[in-house]
Design brief:
By secondary structure, the chain is α/β, with parallel strands linked by helices. The chain contains 18 helices and ten strands. The chain has helices spanning about 1-25, 30, 35-45, 50-85, 90-130, 130-145, 150-155, 160-210, 220-260, 320-330, 350-355, 375-380, 385-395, 400, 425-440, 455-470, 505-510, 515-520, and strands at about 280-290, 300-305, 310-315, 335-340, 345, 360, 445, 475-480, 490-495, 495-500. The protein has a six-stranded mixed beta sheet with strand order 6-7-8-3-9-10, with helices on both faces. A four-stranded antiparallel beta sheet has the order 2-1-4-5, with helices on one face. It is elongated, with a radius of gyration of 34 Å.
Length: about 525
């Protein structure tokens, strides 16, 4: 039976982890950048190695076992309590037995209250010492140390000793916290042991006196004493299990709050218009946006429009709102004020998945996954080989592709497959662009994915990619002006607003921030 409980407990833990991971996959994107939400997830996993339901099943197993032991002990003791009432001293015996039962109840109840008190103190200490933050740091460092790219940076910048010191500080901090928590747990266990020993002493003294007075037979002493000891021990353990369940309820509170997070973003239901000419108009009408918890607008009263088929460049200094503009357009966030329309319809009314199909985006922090090359390009486990190869050809990776031992089935990286292949940073960059080409969406967005390149190389990548997108709308984002000068429509962002708009030649010829930044950057460019 115990083995089956363990299997059910482990299954419950796996199901719970699966539920939380599924929640992370489908919750609104804004939740993923919310520190409180991530702390909820971290606390659940840090505090409960078996999972909430797994811990509950484990404690239920303990409680059920102890409850059965209590019932069996009571059934054994019934003859002693009621059978001896028939003799001359029965009334005294019954009263003294009732007194013993009262003493057992009081001691068990006191043990339960002590258990609950020290459990609450240990949990309070967890928050007071900031142990959750330390667990977060520990998990961050573990993830960082497992990454090949971060390890290169650590070595070239001689950061090993610093990381080692910080890891040691984290370990010492967690160790000190665990010791203090353990002290509370030891006090709880100590009171439990003292209660059990006191109960045992009372029981054996009581049954011994009863045997001496002839109220019970000598042979019955061991049976009754053992039954009463088992009754008190099981009752004590039962209170401990109930106390543990209350502790689990504290963990469950975080779990329930995480799982009950609402998707505030409306999913929409209107299908996106299917147009053969891929003609779409986009309008921002007095759009403002601020991130949750912030007290300032990242985008402020933005009004603009553009058509599919145009080439638009969004430029400006770092932190001017360029990437936030793309997040709003792609509906990773919804606007705080105003409205964004596509073909005259509020984008919040469109079916969300259909709306996302309009965009091929290469973010500046694009991700490559530990899947096969084909699955990374197709963003699916269903790969159109001809389209995938065409995408690789267009980004100039066919020569590298021919060297791969398993072709499109070659895994990227060695995270979980020894046969995987590590691609260079430039190759991964091209693979991200190949993924955008493969998707063949009406909107193509390049959000500074080449920021690590020199200006000339970045310009060459953008111009080459511009030829590939054909009649689609292409939006290029960069803080380097010359990289996107081939675009006829350039938007210069500053403090969440479009302060200038026009072609490169127009903006360079007029007073303003664009010309100032251009002159500051011109020394890095070739002749234009």
């Amino acid at each position: 039976m115990t083995e089956n409980f363990h299997r059910v407990r482990d299954l419950a833990k796996d199901l719970e982890a699966g539920d939380m991971n599924r929640k992370s996959l489908f919750m609104d994107y804004e939740h993923l950048e919310d520190v409180h939400v991530q702390e909820l997830r971290s606390r659940v996993f840090a505090k409960s190695r078996f999972g909430v339901r797994g811990w509950f099943l484990l404690c239920f197993q303990w409680a059920l076992h102890d409850l059965c032991s209590v019932v069996i002990a009571v059934l054994i003791l019934l003859p002693m309590f009621f059978g001896s009432v028939r003799n001359s001293a029965g009334a005294d015996f019954f009263l003294s037995s009732a007194g013993l039962c009262g003493a057992i109840v009081l001691l068990v109840w006191g043990n339960y209250k002590a258990s609950m008190y020290y459990t609450a103190k240990a949990d309070e200490l967890y928050s007071k010492l900031g142990m959750n933050e330390q667990y977060n740091k520990e998990r961050y460092f573990m993830e960082m140390l497992s990454g090949v790219e971060s390890q290169k940076d650590l070595r070239i910048n001689a950061q090993q000793e610093r990381i080692d010191r910080e890891m040691e500080q984290i370990c010492q901090s967690l160790k000190a916290g665990r010791i203090k928590q353990t002290n509370y747990h030891l006090k709880r266990e100590g009171i439990g042991m003292a209660t059990a020993n006191l109960l045992s002493f009372l029981v054996y003294a009581y049954t011994g006196i009863c045997a001496y007075r002839g109220l019970i037979s000598i042979g019955s002493v061991v049976v009754y004493a053992a039954s009463i000891v088992e009754l008190s021990r099981s009752a004590t353990n039962l209170t401990h299990s109930l106390g543990k369940m209350k502790e689990i309820s504290m963990i469950a509170k975080d779990y329930v709050e995480y799982m009950d997070l609402d998707n505030r973003k409306p999913a929409g239901s209107i299908p996106v218009e299917k147009r053969r000419d891929n003609r779409f108009s986009v309008t921002f009408e007095h759009v403002s946006f601020r991130y949750p918890g912030a007290d300032w607008d990242v985008i402020s009263d933005l009004t603009l429009s553009f058509e599919i088929g145009e080439r638009m460049a969004i430029v400006g200094k770092n932190g001017s709102g360029k990437t936030t503009f793309i997040k709003l357009l792609c509906r990773l966030y919804d606007v705080t004020e105003g409205v964004i329309k596509v073909n005259g319809i509020d984008i919040r009314k469109y079916d969300y998945e259909e709306y996302c199909d309009l965009f091929s985006v290469v973010f500046q922090d694009f991700g490559m996954f530990g899947f096969s090359l084909g699955e990374n390009i197709a963003a699916s486990d269903q790969v159109d080989e001809a389209r995938a190869l065409d995408s690789l050809e267009k980004v100039g990776l066919m020569e590298r592709f021919r060297e791969l031992p398993e072709g499109l089935d070659t895994h990227i990286g060695k995270e979980y497959r020894e046969e995987g292949v590590n691609f260079s940073g430039g190759e991964r960059q091209k693979l991200a662009i190949a993924r955008a080409i493969y998707k063949d969406a009406p909107f193509v967005i390049m959000d500074e994915p080449t920021a690590a390149l020199d200006p000339l190389a970045e310009c060459e990548v953008y111009e080459g990619f511009d030829k590939m997108v054909g009649n689609k709308t292409a939006i290029y984002i960069s803080h380097r002006l010359a990289s996107c000068r081939f675009c006829q429509d350039i938007l210069f962002f500053d403090q969440g607003k479009v302060v200038q708009r026009g072609s490169h030649d127009e903006l360079k010829g007029e007073e303003g921030l664009y010309r100032e930044l251009w002159n500051a950057q011109a020394q890095y460019y070739v002749s234009v």
